[in-house]
Amino acid sequence: MRTLTSLFLLSILVLAPTPGLTAQYVDHNGYRIHYTTFSSMIIPADVAALHDIVRAENRIVLNVSGIRNNEPVSLEVNGLVTNLLNQQYDLEFEEVNESEAIYYLANHLALEQDILRFSLTVRLEDGDTVPISFLRRYD
Predict the structure, then answer these.
(1) How many domains does the chain fold into?
(2) Which residues pair with 78 in a beta bridge?
(3) CB of 33 closer than 8 Å to CB of 25
(4) Which of 26, 76, 101, 106 has its CA 20 to 30 A from that of 68?
(5) Which domain CATH number covers 59?
(6) Of 120, 117, 119, which is closest to residue 137 (Cα–Cα)?
(7) Could you tell me which residue, 20 or 58, shows the higher pLDDT?
(8) How far is it, in rounded angstroms, from Cα 94 to Cα 51?
(9) pLDDT tens string 52-110
(10) Buried b vs exposed e over 29-43: b needs ≥16 C-beta within 10 Å?
(11) pTM of the entire structure?
């Protein structure tokens, strides 16, 4: 059951055409690191419960994953999010390891009309670190 619900979650993250769901990636020395944020409400309640994801209108999920040679790779992901008031919050990532995918999820509060600055550090299997910074606006 856990595998089925996790595969459902993965399909949502990868395939769903959702407003406000903007996937991006960074290439580094043969690795491709994908990252995106989306509303926690698109995740079914049972799947969210399996992964300790808080579902609420004002909660977002940050997803990070990596591939090399078309195979999923393990990463070490750390990060901060900063809001408009310059308040910083550590992001706590949970690794979800499936047979065909490895991804890292963090959950955070996004207030109405907020602009959040994400600053991530991704450590690759070969020891290299890749900084990723991006902004998201939530209305």
Answers:
(1) 1
(2) 121
(3) yes
(4) 106
(5) 2.60.40.3340
(6) 117
(7) 58
(8) 8
(9) 889 999 899 999 999 999 999 999 999 999 999 999 999 999 999 988 899 999 999 88
(10) eebebbbbbbbbebb
(11) 0.81
